[in-house]
Amino acid sequence: MPQDFWGRVVYLLQTRGSSYAMGALNTMIIALVSTFIGCVIGFAVGIVQTIPVSKSDAVWKKGILGIIKFILNVYVEVFRGTPMMAQAMFIYFGSSAVFGINMSMWFAAFFIVSINTGAYMAETVRGGILSIDEGQTEGAKAIGMTHFQTMLYVILPQALRNIMPQIGNNLIINIKDTCVLSVIGIVELFYATKSVAGALYTYFESFAIAMVIYFALTFTCSRILRHWEKKMDGNDNYDLATSDTLAHTSGLYSYSKKEEKDE
User: Fold this and answer.
1) Would you say 10 and 199 are in contact if contact means Cβ atoms under 8 Å apart?
2) What band does 236 get if pLDDT is binned at 50, 70 and 90?
3) Number of domain units in the chain
4) b/e map of 222-236 (b: 16 or more CB within 10 Å)?
5) Is 175 exposed, middle or buried (0-12, 13-18, 19+ CB in 10 A)?
6) Residue 205 — φ and ψ, nearest 5°?
7) DSSP summary character for residue 180
8) Which of 187, 163, 181 is nearest to 83 (CA)?
9) Most buried among 40, 101, 205, 249, using CB within 10 Å?
10) CA count, 13 A, side-chain hemisphere, 230
11) pTM of the full predicted structure?
12) What is the pLDDT of residues 150-186, one digit of tens each?
């Protein structure tokens, strides 16, 4: 093995590059799938948490909704207030010891990261929904929309735009936090790096390579998500059209950056 730092790095990439590649692939699969599932869970929990309760509602409805909201609040607080590594150990080994449920490592990995992400996304979605002006909800109900229709067609499209940065942030966090799954035997990037370092006693070089790979993954994802956010912002200029063909009021409505700076 070469004696200099860069020589050892090149040697590791040549001899153990496949291990790093497989670890990085597993990391991205877990992060992407779990973030998607976590977002679905978060949207469901966040929507339920924001269901309004009025004095005119039946007592049974208030009672059932109150119990459901309490359970969801406990779920959110527990998984936001405990580390993912402890959750992984508790769920993977505890489910087998206490309930006799023998999870596969991969199922446990997706399950653990998904419900952890769902807890964080629930609060993000709840905040995103509450950030929309109440007049939007009142206007939707005034034209006869139900709560479900109001959420689906009016509130959530606007809330999604507001919470997109947090969705991207959760994906980047999950790419890094998959390393805790090494405690249950998942061969992701950290586990693969630890194996290489332990076998060849090249800890500094091995984890230097891992850090570069982690940075490349997170930087690429952040740039893609930022580009997506800009696409969701839409154009700066819009053509305002009226239904009255006799009124010449349609035209180009522009938010000039120069005018904004002057103001």
Assistant:
1) no
2) low
3) 1
4) beebeeeeeeeeeee
5) buried
6) -65, -40
7) G
8) 181
9) 205
10) 6
11) 0.80
12) 888 888 888 888 888 888 899 999 999 999 999 988 9
At residue 69, what is the residue type?
A: K
Tell me the torsion sign for CA atoms 167, 170, 174, 176: positive
Neighbours of 82 (CB within 10 A): 13
For 235, the token pair is 């154009």
The tokens for 43 are 């949207």
**Which pLDDT tens digit goes with each residue over 85-144?**
999 999 999 888 888 888 888 999 999 999 999 999 998 888 888 888 888 888 888 888
User: Tell me, what amino acid is at 186?
Assistant: I
CA angle 20, 22, 185 (to 5 degrees): 95
Segments forming the whole domain that contains residue 83: 5-262
Q: Using CA atoms, how far apart are residues 46 and 203, in angstroms rounded to an integer?
A: 43
CA 95 to mean position of chain CA atoms:
25
| Burial category of 165 from C-beta neighbours within 10 Å (exposed 0-12, middle 13-18, buried 19 and up) | middle
